[in-house]
Specification:
Helix content: 25-40%
Radius of gyration: 11 Å
Strand content: 15-25%
Oligomer: single chain
Shape: globular
Order of helices and strands: EHEHEHE
Number of strands: 4
Length: 84
Amino acid sequence: MGVWYLELDDEITDAVARLRAAGEGPVILVLPAGSRVGTGRINFRLLAREAGARSIELAIVSADPQIRALAATAGIAAHGDRKS
């Protein structure tokens, strides 16, 4: 399992590159509140498509409920951190 922590200013291309480098197994992307990746539904659709093409089970972890909701609309499992 790979756990990847994204920074606030990481772009969707950074997240996709990490998925491509992940290899096999499940991947957890941890997004901070206010993350650029977490700003649009299309970003999560791109992540879901990339994960699906590589048969990677993808999950998003974020304290931000809006990020979790957007991920869920793209069919990605979304979880809060221990504080949320």
